[in-house]
Amino acid sequence: MDPKVIEGLKSIVGPDYVISDPEGVKPYLLDETSKNICPEPFLDVVVVKPKNTEEVSKVMKFAYNNEISVVPRGGGTGLAGGVVPIKPSIILSLERIKEKIEVDKDNLTMTCDAGVTLGEILEHLEKNVEDLWFPLHPGDEGATIGGLAACNAGGARAVKYGVMRNYVAGMTVVLPTGEVLRLGGKMVKNVTGYNLMHLLIGSEGTLGIITEVTFRLRPKPWGTYTLVVPYEDPNKAIETVPPILRSGVIPLAIEYIEKEGIEAGEKATGEKWPVKEGQAFLMIVLEGMSEEELLSMSEKVAEICQGHGATDIFLADTRRQQERILKVRSLIYEGLKDETVEILDVGVPIASIAEFVNESRKIGEKYGMKIVQYGHAGDGNVHQHPLKTGFKEEEWRAFYPDLKKEIFALARRLGGTLTAEHGIGLITREDLLSYLSEEEMRLMKGIKSLFDPESLLNIG
Length: 460
Ligand SMILES: Cc1cc2nc3c(=O)[nH]c(=O)nc-3n(C[C@H](O)[C@H](O)[C@H](O)COP(=O)(O)OP(=O)(O)OC[C@H]3O[C@@H](n4cnc5c(N)ncnc54)[C@H](O)[C@@H]3O)c2cc1C
Fold this sequence. Notes:
By secondary structure, the chain is an alpha+beta fold. The protein is built from 17 helices and 17 strands. The chain has helices at residues 3-13, 22-25, 53-65, 118-128, 145-150, 158-161, 196-200, 234-239, 241-246, 259-269, 291-307, 319-330, 332-336, 353-367, 393-413, 429-435, 438-451; strands spanning 18-19, 45-48, 69-73, 89-93, 101-104, 109-113, 132-133, 168-174, 180-184, 209-216, 218-219, 223-231, 253-258, 280-288, 314-316, 371-376, 381-386. Strands 15-12-14-13-16-17 form a 6-stranded antiparallel β-sheet, with helices on both faces. α1 (3-13) packs antiparallel against α3, α10 (259-269) packs across α12 (319-330) and α14 packs antiparallel against α15 (393-413). Flavin-adenine dinucleotide (FAD) binds next to β3, α5 and β10. Flavin-adenine dinucleotide binds at residues 31-32, 71-79, 82-83, 94, 114, 138-140, 143-144, 146-148, 150-151, 153-155, 204-205, 209-210, 333, 421-422, 425, 458.
């Protein structure tokens, strides 16, 4: 990197907060995307760590005046290669922007600097606020609130509570040209002009840098129960989802997990799944304002599951039991990481999940590749892990692109989308071009050039 750029950045944030040596920049080059599909990072980069919005603005003005690409980086937990530099770049890490964590109880909102992590938000609420909670769990707990908003992250609780877009109420954004915008606020309704904030949500760092987020909180429930529901026939498990959603009980989460997923989660955690039999499972989390409400919801859901072929249902009603179950579910990816080519993130309409899961399995079989499927069945977003076990590298690389294309084509045929929550990043960029119509592409390019006339921000 040009020494003048390094000096220029040091003059803005101070010498301690600019890293340019190869060892020092290494931890900033990748995210959690599978190495099998992640592009090689460009090494001619410099990392800068501004401490507040004002410094971000100065860095952006400097980058704009010198025509240098900028890659914003939050917690680096993304699964789409969004933070990977692919040309000479300034990596703008938001890790120091984390002073503000404020709860406004009367407006049921919380305002945090962009670098505050999901884990820190949950901990702050648990320790300091008795009656409110942030009901989503939209990503890894190391993800930042800025990154979660930038990715419009979803997670298992979208069934009941939606995704980040439904919670972000306001934000501070630095444009690629360095101007600072305050968008939205704590009000509930707002139709004053185009909603620019909603363009920023899900823009994955291509339109501006989010430095502060105000988001909504909800009344804290009395408690949760978790049902682990085993099925011998995986199709029956998936087919139970629409009847549950129609029943009047809206679970906090309905997760579908195949047996191999459970085994991977057990391996990663050392915990035991509470049910032995079953080829596939639904993990259904219910929340309620009283014990009676939870018991009545559990009975209703259990009855529906049994009517659809479920065998012995396990009800976890203590916090400890539920945490252990959730831990196994949360670490499935960790357990499969070494064997999986990548995580696919297709979303389909709820009525088509059974067909999607079934047909995907057949596509895998056609190529001789096992696909482990698990995830957010309640919102049509079952993740798929194609396993490379038993193949030489050159073997799976030869057919995998065709397998993936078939799964994407299946999703399209069923009225679905290529990525439901992980985002486009670098890894789905080419597929996006074939997914969108020319007209949609023209509008998106127009929006990008209005925000970022020199195309410097996350140019991947
Ligand atoms: C174990 C695990 C579980 C996960 N579970 C889920 C899940 O259930 N649901 C889900 O949706 N995702 C999930 N994720 C993915 C990830 O946690 C989310 O995508 C999250 O939103 C990324 O936030 P981050 O701060 O780590 O962003 P990063 O990875 O640092 O960045 C992601 C993208 O956002 C941009 N960006 C980051 N911060 C900003 C900012 N302040 N302003 C502008 N652009 C910015 C980056 O340039 C990049 O393009 C999971 C990941 C892991 C590893």
